[in-house]
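Thanks for the sequence, V.! I ran ABC transporter ATP-binding protein right away. Repeating your input here for the record:
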Amino acid sequence: MNHTGTTTSPSTTDPGGPGERSGLALSGVTLRLGDGDSLVTALDAVDLAVRPGEFVAVVGPSGAGKSSLLAVAGALTAPDEGTVTIDGRDIGAMSEAERAAHRRHHIGFVFQTGNLLPALTVLDQLRLVTHLTRGADLARREPRELLEEVGMAHKADRRPHQLSGGERQRVGIARALMTTPSLLLVDEPTAALDRARSHEVVSLLARETKRSAVATVMVTHDHDVLAHCDRIVEMTDGRLSDQTAPA
Ligand SMILES: Nc1ncnc2c1ncn2[C@@H]1O[C@H](COP(=O)(O)OP(=O)(O)OP(=O)(O)O)[C@@H](O)[C@H]1O
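Predicted structure:
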């Protein structure tokens, strides 16, 4: 396995490569789940646009459709109606293989607990991304530099069980940013953290959203951290409400 953290230059000629950024746009997105009597409209004609460098929080009660929104925006689930575009490219018009490559190269995911691989050191969690995306025309980050940026360089040789919850999240965020994604999708990043660590992790997300000019969508139940976001949208019964200013 080649562990060099090669940084390639951005190219605008390859349609699969890192071209012009315009962020995420969902237009008229409807998603139905289940069947028969248990058919649920998880997303109901949802419109949402998130610009590069914008940090949007999605709040709402359990079952409102927040996870469904992340799944559709992340090209994991195809909507029944509507379009999802990332940097102007309609992901519904791609083949399954193209969509998988687009997800791997242009979308970063951050989960509740970091989702790190237990056997790998912090540094190798990031190097693995370089390895898995080898050959792709990407402006990859250099792993050590990125760890420095998220304040984890001094723990590069640790394994996940030797880290705190907040540190694991920092590494998860760094890993998600390795491919300089256009879109960062974040699911309940503070679920396992105390209040102080929650603020640290979400302010890191806010900073990286600006620094990396990534369009970030974070689902959260944690109203304490909303002040770090640029915009808050609320989901109720699959519908997205008008946007409100951060608390
Ligand atoms: N596989 C499925 N089959 C049928 N219905 C589903 C399925 N997955 C989710 N749902 C339903 O779709 C709706 C939206 O679910 P979703 O998980 O998106 O909500 P959520 O806002 O993320 O909830 P939570 O905050 O509890 O995670 C809910 O009514 C849920 O019961």
